[in-house]
Write a structure and sequence with these properties.
Rossmann fold, 2 domains, six-stranded parallel sheet, alpha/beta
Length: about 425
């Protein structure tokens, strides 16, 4: 194996597993370090599924790693199972957060202990690679950091402004984590400082890092990929005047601005706003929702995908999102998108072709675009083809090739000739 590279991520999110698949296809994957993985009909996952059943069994099944051989996966499942169990038993966000941090630190130390001079590089993620990067530098192993979120200084300043304008949206979780911010930010900065290469998931994410003075020559932008196309939207009757929001209904995702835009819009004639995601705003705000707003809470991904097909447009007015996977998911289901310039996936939006990009925190601009959608239903439907075509040009297979190329180019390694 040439250039054996370790991918270290305490979970199975698509972006991390696609990095591992890309390295595997290039003959470079040493192993995928993670916490818990469901192994189908065998292993701990199968035993727990049979014993626990119900909703927890469904969560366990989602922790699979298709396309990555089991022999290339190294697991540290204990703390992740504790965290999952605590949430299922009703642990609050603050308790869950403390268990999450313990999980990250334990995982990172385990990865560090497993590194050796046989490894060429390690590819790590925020808050989970400080110890392993420090050990890698001792061993002469290259370090690659995946910047999946905007820089913490940008995030903190922006959220502080948003909460100053909407103090009722401040949660117990936010207050609790603010007390830990200095220590956690120091950890994040140490990871960045130890990285030889930073792979950012969007130009926006990269900009929030380089604006702090971080060396631009150590940063490469590789936009995330879109899921597999689902052209069955052509056979589905769309709900005219249906605006879909997908994500946590929170300050950071721009939910207060969306609700303000809906109020300005004064939409009638059957127009509806559907909120698919966990509600984290105040109870008073929820009680004051107009009858034309439907709240679904968190829903399974298959159900969300069906919602993409039926909706008229995705409205994702996040004030700060490194990428925003819901944007590419919507495009892959032929759904035009309204988003903001503070969403990394906005790079994929062509104004008036497959969607629109507005300023973050501007309900009036958001209402204007939504009104256009109500006034031009035929033109909006015609944009669905362009939305799908955008996703086709930015598939996960493209992402895998691009991230491997970025690593090779940065370290001056030529691709092997077959």
């Amino acid at each position: 194996m040439g250039l054996p590279t370790v991918v270290s991520y305490p979970g199975v999110m698509p972006a991390a597993t696609e990095v591992a698949r890309g390295l595997l296809e290039a003959g470079m994957l040493a192993r995928y370090e993670t916490t818990f993985v469901h192994e189908g009909e065998r292993g701990v996952g199968a035993v727990l599924e049979r014993a626990l059943g119900g909703r927890l069994a469904g969560q366990l099944r989602r922790r699979s790693l298709p396309g990555i051989p089991a022999a290339r996966v190294r697991r540290q499942p204990t703390w992740e199972l504790v965290r999952t169990g605590a949430r299922m038993l009703g642990a609050g966000e603050v308790v869950s957060d403390r268990i999450w941090e313990r999980t990250m630190h334990s995982f990172d130390r385990g990865v560090a202990a497993g590194l050796s001079t046989r490894d060429w590089a390690i590819y790590g993620y925020e808050h989970a690679c400080r110890a392993s990067f420090e050990r890698a530098r001792e061993l002469g192993v290259h370090t690659v950091f995946d910047l999946a979120s905007p820089h913490y200084r940008f995030m903190e300043a922006l959220l502080a402004r948003e909460l100053e304008a909407a103090p009722e949206a401040e949660t117990d979780h936010y207050r609790a984590t603010q007390r830990l911010a200095q220590e956690r930010n120091a950890r994040k900065q140490a990871e960045l400082d130890a990285a030889e290469l930073v792979v950012a998931n969007s130009a926006f994410t990269a900009r929030t890092l380089t604006d702090t003075g971080y060396p631009g020559e150590r940063v490469r932008v590789v936009p995330l990929g879109a899921p597999e196309l689902d052209g069955s939207w052509r056979d589905v009757q769309q709900d005219a005047g249906s605006f879909l929001f997908a994500g946590v209904v929170s300050v950071r995702k721009g939910a207060p601005h969306l609700l303000a835009a809906w109020e300005q819009l004064g939409a009638g004639g059957g127009a509806r706003l559907v909120l698919a995601g966990q509600w984290t705003l105040g109870a008073a705000q929820r009680a004051a929702l107009a009858p034309s707003i439907e709240t679904l809470g968190s829903i399974p991904r298959p159900e969300l995908f069906e919602r993409y097909k039926r909706a008229s447009v995705l409205v994702f007015p996040s004030v700060c999102d490194g990428f925003g996977m819901v944007v590419t998911e919507a495009l892959a289901h032929g759904l035009p998108v309204i988003t903001t310039r503070n969403v990394g996936a906005a790079d994929l939006i062509e104004e008036g072709v497959n969607g629109w990009v507005v300023e973050p925190g501007d309900p009036a601009a958001l209402a204007t675009r939504m009104q256009w959608c109500l006034d031009n239903p035929v033109a909006l439907r015609e944009m669905r083809e362009a939305a799908e075509a955008t996703a086709a040009r930015n598939a996960w297979s493209d992402y895998r090739l691009r991230v491997v190329a970025a690593i090779r180019e940065h370290f001056g390694v030529e691709p092997e000739r077959g």
